[in-house]
Amino acid sequence: MSADAQAAPTGLTPLNPEVQRCPYDWYAAMHASGEGAFDAGPLGYVIAGHAELSQVTFDTGGFSSEFYGPEGPQLAGVSPEPWSTEVQEFWATIPKLKNALFSCDPPTQTRQKAIANKSMNIARVRKMEPTIRAEANTLVDSFIEDGRCNFYTAYAEPLPVIMIATMLGMDGDRELFKKWSDDIADGYLAPMDNTRRMEVLRSAKAFIEDLMPRIEARRANPTDDLLSALVNSTIDEEDEQKFGEMAGPRHLTDGELLCAVSQLLPAGNHTTTNLIGNLLIELIERPEVMADLRANPELIPAAIDESLRKDSPLRATYRVCTKDAEVSGTKIPAGALVPMMWGGAGHDPEVFENPQEFDIHRPNVKKHLAFGYGPHVCVGMPLARAVSRIAFEVLLERVDNIRYAAGFTPTRAAQFPFSAYEGLEIEFDKRT
User: Where are the domains of the chain?
Assistant: First the structure.
C-alpha cells in the first residue's frame, strides 16, 4: 500500500453524477485497489472498507463528528464553494444550532443519545406497531381502488413522516414536515451551490420558528413524547465545562435541542422513505422474490437488511480528522474531511460475496453498516425497521402484481450522500 492517500479511481468521485446515481463501480474500484482511503478532492478522504470503518468509528478523538467545527452545524451543505452575500445575510437571521447527537462526540453525545433512546427504544416502538399498521392501511385505502399511484407521495413518504412526527409529538402539516426534513438532511450532508443553500436555509428557519414554541410548551407542560424527553431530561457534565457553567446536571440548551430535533425528524423519515422505495424497486424487478415475501412475510426483515446493504439510503456521514492519521497504511492529514462510506462497506467483497447481487438469503446480511456502527449507530433504527417492515407487510397483504406503470422507467437520483430514485409510478391489482 502507498504511504499517502490515493486519488479516487479516474472519473469515479462522489461529485460525478453517474457515481451519485449508482456508486457500485466506484465501490468496486476502491475495494479492488486495496487502499485504506481515497483523496476525493473537495469532499476530503473517503473511507469505504468494512474493517476500516468499523475501526475508525470508535476513534472519536482522532476522527471527530464535529465536522462543522465547535460552532455547530450551519445547515448549508458541505461544499467548499464560498457563501454568497445573500446566504451570509440570511444565515445571520437564523438561531444557531449547537453540536448534538451525530454532530458531537462522546461523552456528551453518549448522554444525549441516552435521552433519545428512552423514547425510541425497541419496547417503545413495539407499542407503536398497531398505530403504524393502522396508518399504513389508511394510506393504502386512499389509493387501492385506483389501481395505480405515485408510490412515494402516496405511501413511502407519508408513512415514515407520520410516525416520527407522532413519536416527537409534533402535530401539524406533514407535507411541510417532509419538505423541511428533506431540505435539512441536505443541509447537513449534501454538496450544494448557493441557490440550493438559500432553499435549505429558508426551510431551516421555518422549521426552527415552528419548533421553538413547541420547546417552550414542553418546558411549561411536559408530555409523554420524545420532544418532551429531550427538553426536560438532564445530562451530567461532570467532566466538561463547555457552556461557561459549573459542571453538573443540566438541561440541553436551545441550540442543542434545535440541533437534535433537526436531526431526528429527517433521520426518522427521509432515509426510511428511500429504503421503502429502493426495496420495492428491487422486488418489482425480481417478481419471484416479491412472491416469496408475500407467501412468507417472515422474510421481509431479511429483504430490508439486504436492501440496506446493497443500497444504503444514507451512503455516508462525515468525520473530521483531528490529527495526522493512518488508516490501513494510508495517511490522512489533520483537518481533512472524511466521508464515512457506510454504503461502500456493504459492497466490501471481503465481507459480502458478489456484493452487487440482491440476495435475501445472504447468510451474513446483518453485518451491513447502513445504520452506522459504534457510538453513532442510528438512534432511529428500531423505528425505521418497524415502519419499513410493516409498510411491506400491509402492502403485500393488500395488493398483488405490483409493477411499473405503463411508460415508467425508474431513474436514480444524482445526489450525494443519499441513495434514492427520482420517482416511482406503479400499477397493481387489488387482492381479494
Answer: 6-430
CB 104 within 8 Å of CB 112: yes
Q: What is the rounded CA–CA span in Å between residue 33 and residue 36?
A: 9
Q: Report which of 336, 319, 348, 369 is spatially closest to residue 26, judged by C-alpha positions.
A: 348
- Interior angle at CA 50, CA 370 and CA 265, nearest 5: 20
6-430 has which CATH code? 1.10.630.10
Number of H helices, E strands in the chain: 16, 13
User: Residue 397 is placed in which grid cell?
Assistant: 397483504
Model confidence over 335-385: pLDDT tens digits? 999 999 999 999 999 999 999 999 999 999 999 999 999 998 999 999 999
Per residue in 55-65, pLDDT tens? 999 999 999 99
What is the b/e burial string over 350-369, where b = at least 16 CB atoms within 10 angstroms of the residue's CB?
ebbeebeebbbebeebebbb
**CA torsion through residues 117, 316, 276, 368, sign:** negative
Is pTM, for the whole model, over 0.90?
yes
Taking alpha carbons only, the member of 317, 314, 293 closest to residue 304 is 293
Burial classification of residue 57, based on how many CB atoms lie within 10 Å of its CB (0-12 exposed, 13-18 middle, 19 or more buried) = buried
Task: Decide if 305 contacts 368 (C-beta within 8 A).
Answer: yes
pLDDT band at 247 (very low <50, low <70, confident <90, very high): low
Cβ-Cβ contacts under 8 Å for 15 (sequence gap 6 or more): 41, 42, 43, 191, 416
- The gap from C-alpha 329 to its chain's centroid, in whole angstroms, comes to 29
Residue of 379, 372, 394 whose CA lies nearest to 313? 372
Cβ distance 344 to 52 under 8 Å? no
Start-to-end Cα distance in the chain: 60
